[in-house]
Amino acid sequence: MGGFFREATHHETIAEYAKNGWRLVQVLPTNYNGQGKPTDYEIIFEKHVDE
């Protein structure tokens, strides 16, 4: 999800999943740099499934 000299693509990822019926639930940081800034993220989606 972006960073110094890196292009953020999370908006495109979220939009693409939404087109397919997924709903964004949460974004969790998974790794941090030495200054405590998140460097990696887990994007969590959910989708209703008819039984």
SS element count, helices:
1
Strand order of the largest sheet: 1-2
Measured distance between first and last alpha carbons: 34 Å
| Rg from alpha-carbon coordinates | 14 Å
Largest sheet: 2 strands, antiparallel
Elements, N to C (H/E): HEE
Helix content: 10-25%
Strand residue content:
35-45%
Average pLDDT value? 86
Count the strands? 2
Global outline:
elongated
Helix/strand/pairing class, anyone?
alpha+beta
| Uncertain residue ranges | none
Description:
The N and C termini lie far apart (34 Å). A two-stranded antiparallel sheet has the order 1-2. With 51 residues, the protein is an alpha+beta fold. The protein is 20% helix and 37% strand.
Write the layout of secondary structure elements.
Layout: H1 10-19, E1 23-32, E2 38-46
Antiparallel strand pairs: 1-2
What descriptive keywords fit this protein?
51 residues; elongated; two-stranded antiparallel ribbon; 37% strand; alpha+beta
Can you give me a brief rundown of this structure?
The chain has one helix spanning 10-19, and strands spanning 23-32, 38-46. The chain has 51 residues and is α+β, with helices and mostly antiparallel strands.
